[in-house]
Amino acid sequence: MTHFVLSNGIQIPAIGFGTWQIPDGEQAYRSVLTALDVGYRHIDTALSYGNERSVGRAIRDSGLRREDIFITTKLPAEIKGYQETLDTFNRSLDNLGVDYIDLYLIHAPKPWNVEGDGMEYMPQNIETWKAFEELYKKGKIRAIGVSNFRPPHLDVLLKEVEIVPMVNQILLHPNHIPKDNIKYCRDRNILIEAYSPLATGKIFDTPRLTTIAEKYNKTVAQLCIRWSYQNGFLPLPKSVTPARIKENFNIFDFTITDEDMQQIGQVE
Length: 268
Ligand code: NAP
Known about the structure:
Number of helices: 10
Shape: globular
Structural class: alpha/beta
Strand order of the largest sheet: 3-4-5-6-7-8-9-10
Distance between the termini: 28 Å
Order of helices and strands: EEEHEHEHEHEHEHEHHEHH
Low-confidence stretches: none
Strand content: 15-25%
Bound molecules: NADP nicotinamide-adenine-dinucleotide phosphate
Helix content: 40-55%
Number of strands: 10
Mean pLDDT: 98
Oligomer: single chain
Largest sheet: 8 strands, parallel
């Protein structure tokens, strides 16, 4: 499995299996087991997805060693503050049944139901981040990052904290390319993870992508996931369908030309 390398030297498998909206129980358990079986070694979950228990059970039952699987989970957007973060982190450890997390993310700069850019939450995010740094230094987390942060949030955070986030997980697919955020993160060696790399299933209505995918004898899903990977963004495709879980992982045997990369979606 190909890897990206984070700013602290940690290797992160170059595709993650997304688990948002997969209900806890049999479906989450089976999907994660299938993903591990076809070769994924990186699972993206969150406390707020409600499926950490099934993810943890699948990881244990996979027969793989804990150290061979990269687990990302997230602190809910609604929970902020130093002690609140430490307490909530322990809930995720308990749910997953593990004693460390590979990557822990602040799910969003502000609670989901708050209007606006949420800049007023930055003092609380800084307190939260201090707890992240503490957990990182204690070895409970191998890498720390944020999600849904934009340059104004990162500007404030970076001025106040010791450790620069290693990752920013953001909405990113060929029909949604936040160029300012991409440049900001690239300039600071913050790895971008592309969430909803298939636009939560809406990417398939894009004719230009169908035409380009046919040239490579690949599906639109594979084209989009490969485009993300070739741009240096770590894609996190989700599926509960075994054939698609496998298809989405099968992107390492072709290369998109520079011209087609631009046609799919221009990043710079
Ligand atoms: P996505 O991966 O963009 O798309 C998933 C949808 O596409 C599902 O409806 C799936 O259907 C379908 N699909 C998957 N592979 C396909 C294929 N090969 N052919 C046809 N259809 C296919 O969805 P997402 O869940 O929005 O994003 C992926 C992951 O990113 C999430 O699961 C989560 O881990 C992460 N994420 C993070 C945040 C955040 O705030 N940090 C927000 C959103 C997402 P089936 O499942 O029915 O097969």
